[in-house]
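Q: Given only this backbone (126 positions), what sequence would you predict?
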């Protein structure tokens, strides 16, 4: 006998199993080099390898337009960030993707230097 709740339970189970299947049961390593703002794009000359999984092909398609962050990729693919990090890590290791660290935020400039520059500009140009 089936109940009305069974289709909902099957859907929840599918959502839990899918990331496990996509990553082949792997988990993030402790020394993961990818943060949410790490930028990723396709290599100029990707290697010829065995056929890729549909999720990896989707990542390559997304990244072919230019740099995207890990967070953007997760948003476009609707995959969990951890799964995206694992897939990006695989593709980067295989030579398909190029990643670069995000540009560090600017350091605070000494206020006195800014005031001296402002005073110099005002003295010169009025």
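A: Predicted residues:
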């Amino acid at each position: 006998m089936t109940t009305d709740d069974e289709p909902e339970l099957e859907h929840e189970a599918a959502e839990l199993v899918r990331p496990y299947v996509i990553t082949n049961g792997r988990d993030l390593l402790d020394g993961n080099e990818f943060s949410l703002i790490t930028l990723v794009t396709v290599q100029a000359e990707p290697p010829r390898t065995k056929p890729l999984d549909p999720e990896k092909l989707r990542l390559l398609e997304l990244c072919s337009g230019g740099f995207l962050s890990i967070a953007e990729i997760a948003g476009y693919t609707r995959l969990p960030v951890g799964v995206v990090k694992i897939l990006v890590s695989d593709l980067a290791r295989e030579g398909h993707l190029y990643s670069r660290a995000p540009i560090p935020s600017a350091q605070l400039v000494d206020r006195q230097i800014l005031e001296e520059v402002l005073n110099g500009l005002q003295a010169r140009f009025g």
